[in-house]
Amino acid sequence: MPRISKLYFKTAIIFLIVGIGMGLNMAISQDHSVIGAHAHCNLLGWVTMAIFGGYHALNPRKAEKRIAFIQYYVYTAGVTLMVPALYLMLLGNMAMEPIVAAASLITFAGVLIFAFIIFSGEDVSVASPRNPVVN
User: Taking the alpha carbons of 86, 87, 90, 92 in that order, is the dihedral positive or negative?
Assistant: First the structure.
């Protein structure tokens, strides 16, 4: 499995743990005011990063390119900044709003870079018994 896929899967599981922690905290406290941060953590952190990792696992040639790592770091920085800032903002700290906005733009830039990776001209090469991928 390509290194970038492993990075995405490891990062995704950290976001899943944090997201479940937020969900448990909401359930125990009966305060669901931070549900938006919980949702962003699980969807942008856990689900989307796992999908990115799966894409690169199925496309090792693209996974080896420098742009894949740039995309990982940009996207991860955006989500890592967004989730706690959004959490604090939803708790009432409105000073976090500009940080949430900036983090959202960084995350979106990571998505645009991923779109570039997907739409770049190179064919997807999926491993199969007839066509093994050599790492």
Answer: negative
